[in-house]
């Protein structure tokens, strides 16, 4: 379907907005009245600007408080709307969004509204434009698309159509089923917005917290599937009021907007395909390659210099990682333990080197094992993520990769039976038997990132679109120096789990880490183990500094879960944290102290299908880390 | 009354919190359960820490979901609460806050609740502690203090008392009148919180948006007056859940908390005094000197170097300011126009010099004419603002001053008939006739500041407590690069008007200005005029660059206000903005372009009692400024 976006969705002057929208790949744009009002030139100038950028102006909006008025007021409203029709001619658009009245003195009489909307339709016909009537969720009398459609259908005039907006429907927990029953040609415009579920006034929610499809909690593929079933062939247009987007650079926001619509189309296609195998798409929906059916970490790659390599290697050795290989042509070393692999890259004049120069010791790449690397790259590139290729030495494998929102690389790695593995191709293996068991670590459970608040939703979209991950609801974690927003994303088989963190406040550990990394960075890597008591015993004996847990925690844990005395003692003795889910699944975990005041490691044991990340313990961990920093005098009290 | 604060109100580890609370001058502290849970030591360690800091632990909290349960559950709850009583003994406190149940399966039966709260009271008596029962605004059955008091009164046991919290009462628009009828000795604890009026879920509102008294919109002096009338003599304790405070340095937050209670006591005293002249305060309320009855600007002082002085002087001369004097002993120049006076301070090794080194060209001091400077200083110092004295030359006047939250100075200046004015004392006046009319400017209408978001509420408290200003509700202004929060404060006679601005987003002009100033700074100075058409004509002719207003603005203005064609033409011709209030008061104003990409000037004419600041035009001005910056390439797109 054709993709459009309202100018209110991104930041900047009107000229900057249009340029960013065009560059992102949109075909159309809705002009918001205020953007025109603040613009220095005439509506005709805007028309030329859009045309030069290859953008169709698909709608002008909003027109408010038209219907349900006295005869005298109606005459004034018709005058008012005719001025807008003139302006639309100058602007070169034929569609006007008319919102259901919010006026406190609007008359709640459907017959009157029908009569007056009929006059609007006639005026529109005379002017050669089409009006699109939308039910605002906080309208005075008309709040649902069903009600709006009842009025539009009764007027029965081609110049008065129905406008749909996913927010207005889904924010009221209204069902979109009836949309499919409306004739598509009677739907004049469709706006799409997602939002996190929030328990607040719907107007405030709408004005400040909307986000791009896939970043919030609404079931938008279901909504859009109903739109497709109606036969609607017009644009899908993003209308996003978001305080963060208002302050973010417009090019990146617009690019995310465009890919969010591509992802929505792909998911709508799936929703339609499974529910109605025979349906014909009235307008073709975007059809990317399927996301990887299985994905997992092949290795994590850190950018290091000689000194940082020494410090990380020292930690890895205490965690009983083995030095397992040396890259054939580069200054790159491989460490392994169980199926967990860590690569330390100190190669001069490389991508890793550039990353190290900018970010210091940091996670510069993640290699993901997928079932089809070529398709995975094709899918990622289709969503507009930049493919990357570095230098490849003789006999080394070319590994397809894209850049994540922080500029780090995501490699896609195939491992096919009979073919040499990536490690065999690129490394001189000193540990030729492969990933045999060397200790209690079995692999990587999850990777947690510290992000600038402004890139949080960009990452959600990246992980959802490239890897097809699902997202849990976001939670707020209390760090002693400020709140941290946290959200987990995971693949269907849980082979890939990522946790995103961003500080609400400037003083928390996450914000400090982001500053330390100049933009983004690793929060921690969690290694999985089948025997966490053995793991912490071995690692403590080897000198791994574990984060100390206060005694009061165990008293409280006992009060909450009534644990067997033996288990409680063992947890206390090993500084282990504990969580239990409603099905009895258990999570035992421990943290190391922080390395280079940047990131730390976690050891986790999942029992009985526990599927979370120990969120109830996050505050205890954050407080212990804050004490550690406070003692070390690292608090930035500016 | 004795002042206390809950540990949850400020950031940091428990040790940092207690130190900050003690340093701020509080007598008591409420220990929040989680702070104890995250603490490394024992409750006895906390007791010792507090005692060493001279802090009484006045309450432990919260205890949840006690009443309205089955007999079996009651037995468990009594076990649970006895463990807390033991912990309280270790902690050295005798008061426990018990919140009304929020459990979905709580039984809504007052007789049952009374019976069970009676058992709680008996257990408390055995343990030698006092329980304080509080109605949460979102309680399952008990939501108002009247309902909670009905239960507590029926139990009629000294170890079960009523706890009050201003948020829970005022968030529901409940009236506090009945508090005065409750016997003071039956009120066990009083918590105080303010909040901005918000249309959202009360639990979310309470957990994230509370603020210190005076920073929000609640009528807290009325609430507290009822508490005083009841005869309550215990502490007033701040319990503030605020996302911003969680991320702010604890010392400054605690200091603001303490002064907010002092201000609340002073205002409560006034509320009681006027309503009940004969009332005896059961516990003495803070009694500072009255705020200035009249205040206005004597001068604004800018920190400059030679080059910046030249640039500012050049602007002032185009605005027909006269160079009116030279300081007797310092490199300080005085400019005047009407009653507006600007001082440019380039003195080496002075306060202004230090300010210039840190902030560049900036507003380093404001001199306020008040009716009693000594009393004004005493009042400010009583609220904990730091008095300041600089070097004084021979025959110069010692001018009392305090430091504002950004470190700039606020001088208090007396002008008594017959005494030499400050200008006569300190300056060699080249313009001996004083502030005679030199052009269309009559004085300073208002001063607008650009603040870091974290210091916004500290400024509100500063202006309210030191000058007794009132505050309008905060508004959100759309800058093309992000939202700006704005709030006006003003004195009763409007002699002093200040507008505070802080960016919600990092990319707006306000945030840029704050960055440019390294912390805080002037947004603009608005000069008043009685004839704005004459003013802009003269100033444009003199070469003052006025901000251009788009033609579309005037079309829209016409549509909104139906102005006489002549007025509309005149406005358009002079790039003037226009606003009209509901009483027909009018506001005509114009802006200059930005000086040094930092601040700008405004010219305003108020007609017919207009009392606002042209808020509907702010977006037009912000967009025009954004275009100006965009053209100049100053957008920081990081």
From TrEMBL, chains A, B:
Superkingdom of this protein's organism: Bacteria
Co-factor requirement: a divalent metal cation
GO biological process entries: 3,4-dihydroxybenzoate biosynthetic process
EC numbers on record: 4.2.1.118
Pathway annotation: Aromatic compound metabolism; 3,4-dihydroxybenzoate biosynthesis
A GO term, aspect molecular function: metal ion binding
Reactions listed under catalytic activity: 3-dehydroshikimate = 3,4-dihydroxybenzoate + H2O
Pfam families the record matches: AP_endonuc_2, Glyoxalase, Glyoxalase_5
PROSITE patterns documented for this protein: VOC
Secretion signal span: none
Record-listed a divalent metal cation binding positions: 134, 165, 191, 239
Keywords: Isomerase, Lyase, Metal-binding
Residues the entry annotates as binding Mg(2+): 446, 524, 602
Domain VOC: 298-415, 443-593
Gene3D superfamilies attached to this UniProt entry: 2,3-Dihydroxybiphenyl 1,2-Dioxygenase, domain 1, Divalent-metal-dependent TIM barrel enzymes
Record's function text: Catalyzes the conversion of 3-dehydroshikimate to protocatechuate (3,4-dihydroxybenzoate), a common intermediate of quinate and shikimate degradation pathways.
PANTHER family for the chain: HYDROXYPYRUVATE ISOMERASE, XYLOSE ISOMERASE-LIKE TIM BARREL DOMAIN-CONTAINING PROTEIN
Similarity comment: family membership: Belongs to the bacterial two-domain DSD family.
Protein name: 3-dehydroshikimate dehydratase
């Amino acid at each position: 379907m054709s993709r459009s976006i309202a100018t209110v969705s991104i930041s900047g002057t009107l000229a900057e907005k249009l340029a960013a929208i065009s560059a992102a790949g949109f075909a159309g744009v809705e002009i918001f009245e205020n953007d025109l009002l603040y613009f220095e030139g005439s509506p005709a100038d805007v028309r030329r600007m859009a045309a030069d950028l290859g953008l169709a102006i698909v709608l002008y909006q909003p027109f408010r408080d038209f219907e349900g008025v006295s005869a005298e007021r109606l005459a004034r409203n018709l005058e008012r709307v005719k001025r807008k029709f003139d302006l639309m001619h100058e602007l070169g658009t034929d569609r006007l969004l008319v919102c259901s009245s919010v006026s406190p003195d609007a008359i709640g009489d459907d017959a009157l509204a029908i009569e007056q909307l009929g006059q609007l339709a006639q005026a529109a016909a005379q002017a050669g434009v089409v009006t699109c009537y939308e039910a605002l969720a906080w309208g005075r009398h008309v709040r649902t698309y069903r009600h709006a459609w009842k009025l539009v259908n009764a007027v029965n005039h081609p110049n008065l159509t129905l406008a749909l907006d996913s927010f207005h429907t889904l924010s009221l927990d209204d069902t979109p089923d009836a949309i499919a029953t409306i004739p598509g040609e009677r739907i004049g415009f469709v706006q799409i917005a997602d939002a996190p579920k929030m328990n607040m006034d719907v107007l405030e929610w709408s004005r400040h917290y909307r986000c791009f499809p896939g970043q919030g909690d609404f079931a938008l593929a279901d909504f859009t599937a109903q739109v497709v079933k109606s036969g609607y062939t017009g644009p899908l247009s993003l209308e996003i009021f978001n305080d963060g987007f208002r302050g973010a650079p417009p090019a990146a926001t617009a690019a995310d907007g465009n890919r969010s619509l591509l992802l929505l189309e792909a998911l709508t296609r799936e929703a339609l395909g499974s529910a109605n195998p025979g349906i014909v798409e009235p307008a073709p929906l975007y059809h990317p390659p399927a996301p990887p059916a299985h994905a997992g970490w092949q290795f994590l790659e850190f950018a290091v210099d000689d000194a940082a390599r020494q410090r990380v290697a020292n930690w890895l050795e205490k965690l009983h990682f083995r030095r397992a290989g040396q890259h054939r042509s580069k200054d790159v070393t491989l460490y392994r333990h169980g199926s967990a692999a860590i690569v330390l890259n100190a190669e001069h004049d490389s991508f890793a080197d550039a990353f190290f120069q900018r970010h210091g010791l940091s996670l510069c790449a993640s290699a993901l094992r997928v079932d089809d690397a070529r398709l995975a790259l094709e899918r990622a590139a289709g969503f507009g993520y930049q493919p990357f290729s570095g230098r490849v030495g003789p006999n080394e494998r070319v590994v397809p990769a894209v850049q994540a929102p922080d500029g780090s690389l995501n490699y896609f790695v195939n491992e096919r039976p009979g073919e040499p593995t990536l490690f065999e191709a690129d490394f001189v293996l000193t540990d030729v038997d492969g990933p045999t068991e060397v200790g209690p670590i079995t692999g990587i459970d999850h990777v947690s990132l510290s992000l600038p608040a402004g890139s949080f939703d960009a990452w959600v979209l990246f992980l959802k679109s490239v890897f097809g991950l699902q997202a849990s609801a976001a939670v707020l974690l209390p760090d002693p120096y400020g709140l941290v927003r946290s959200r987990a994303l995971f693949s269907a088989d849980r082979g890939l789990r990522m946790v995103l963190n961003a500080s609400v406040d400037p003083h928390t550990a996450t914000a400090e880490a982001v500053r330390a990394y100049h933009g983004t960075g690793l929060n921690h890597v969690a290694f999985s183990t089948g025997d966490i008591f053995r793991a912490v015993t071995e690692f403590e004996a080897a000198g791994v500094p574990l984060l100390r847990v206060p005694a009061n925690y165990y008293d409280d844990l006992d009060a909450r879960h009534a644990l067997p005395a033996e288990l409680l003692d063992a947890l206390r003795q090993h500084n282990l944290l504990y969580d239990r889910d409603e099905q009895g699944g258990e999570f035992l975990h421990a943290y190391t102290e922080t390395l280079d005041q940047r990131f730390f490691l976690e050891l986790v044991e999942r029992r009985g299908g526990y599927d979370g990340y120990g969120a109830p313990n996050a505050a205890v961990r954050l407080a212990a880390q804050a004490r550690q920093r406070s003692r070390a005098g690292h608090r930035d009290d500016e």
